[in-house]
Please model this.
Amino acid sequence: MIADHDYHHIENDGQCKGLNVNKGIDKPETFNEDSIRRFLKHKRKKTMTADAYVEGVLAGNISTLSQAVTLVESSKKEHQEIASEIITRCLPYSGKSLRIGITGVPGVGKSTFIESMGKFITRRGGKLAVLAIDPSSERSRGSILGDKTRMEELSSDANAYIRPSPSAGSLGGVARKTRETIVLCEAAGFDTIFIETVGVGQSETMVHSMVDFFLLLMLAGAGDELQGIKRGIMEMADAITINKADGNNIEKAEMARVQYLNALHLFPPTDSGWTPKVLTCSAFHHIGIDKIWGTIEEYVELVKKNGYFQHRRNEQSRYWMYETINDRLKSDFYQNNDLKDITAAFEQKVLEQEMSSFVAARELLENYYQSKKTNK
Model:
């Protein structure tokens, strides 16, 4: 700081008549540390009690719902414990939504379709939650989580909630957490749940095991349509929709529709008694969205009438019970501190061809069981 008696400006000299230049003020700091501390203190969210989370979720508070989902996705033990209590207490208020899985080849326009269908649902007075499983990099474990950016109009809809979740290289883990997130969203009052998958592959099997209706989106004119997708995915689909059926692509879309329809006739009858349908639409121009929703309603009416709807949900609950057991056992094995050194030693023996992979696995499991007995 410059003291007043040290300050001098040439225009304040006597020969400069009628001029007077004030000293001015000192240059302010580039940032205010007190303001930053207050900001960070305000932004730092504290973990609430289970009562507060449950109360907020049941009241439909989106902020509380998002925090509860973050606890579900967390790998911290203390977060998992409180998340488990929240889910248990929200469970009686869940199960009343329609769960729809949506998948398709890259570039098919899933985000555009979901936004178009989503706005159709909210305009009719429905409440929609979109759970998008976002692919993570195998190298950095990072993900873009860009669904809110791509669904700009839907993300600002008061009756819609979009929650992207990184797959983090573990489809089984993220699928289990997605199923728990479904419970929270249903308890918060969302009557329709969309689950968008990573892409065509293992993730479809996971998603199929937690939804009521499975919709497959396809493109026309992108090569050999029937060869470009696995038969298993088509067998899981309750409906196939050819997207981007507009402009010069309408004729190609209709040809693709006929091809898929003929292919579906070769598959065995479904357990639900439903005959899968093939439709066309243009999500960008909002054409055919009402027909797709009508098909979904027709399916739900049929399977609720013949009892398959509840049967499928019961089978899914059973499946996820055993999947959770498998997941917990696997996690417990790899986090066992008693096995870390011995596992590395066995791995080296396998690499040096001193022991077969199967023998090494069996002996490691025997050591694991022994360590559990010892620590009782």
Remarks:
- Residues 308-334 form the longest helix (27 residues).
- The first strand starts at residue 98 and ends at 104.
- Confidence is low (pLDDT under 50) at residues 136-145, 224-228.
